[in-house]
Amino acid sequence: MMRLVSVRHLTVLALATIVSATLAQDLTIQMELGVDRKDRPIIITEITDAAGEPARRRQVDYYFIPDFFPNRGGRLHGSHPVYLGSATTNLIGAAEFRYTPPYSGTALFEARVEGSRDLAGGSAQLEAEVLLEESPVPELEPVPLAAIRRPLEIGILSTVIGVWLFLLLLTLTTIRRINRLGRGVTG
Known about the structure:
Order of helices and strands: EEEEEEEEH
Largest sheet: 5 strands, antiparallel
Distance between the termini: 70 Å
Strand order of the largest sheet: 1-8-7-4-5
Radius of gyration: 32 Å
Structural class: alpha+beta
CATH class of the largest domain: Mainly Beta
Shape: elongated
């Protein structure tokens, strides 16, 4: 189990594409990382149109762009985004998506919005520095053996009897084979 220690924003890149000047308005996409009430990381995406009005009930698809060489200073050219899931914007044009990156380091996320007749589509990328820490193994309370004394005794006794029966059968089988071989050679 991994636990999020900290998230720090590095850069936010927003790219909006205009579908058609007569049919669609420009789109503004803003992304940021945060944590919810249970300290789980969330990606918050806010979408507004050219007039600054929130884009309500728009589906936002989230992608993680993997960094194949995190210690060599850069992403592999042509790294394919990994689809994470989607969320829908609420009345104030914000969508929240919960996701914990698989490793510490620089993480690149992308949010994509499909265009419609009245609003252009677009995408935005968010690069963040993520630090994950392994959760310690929880310490278990010791259970007194007296509470499970009978089942433990029965289990040990069954194991001992089973091993003795196996060894007895193996010994008798070996003796029988030796006797057969001995009879065949002398007789």
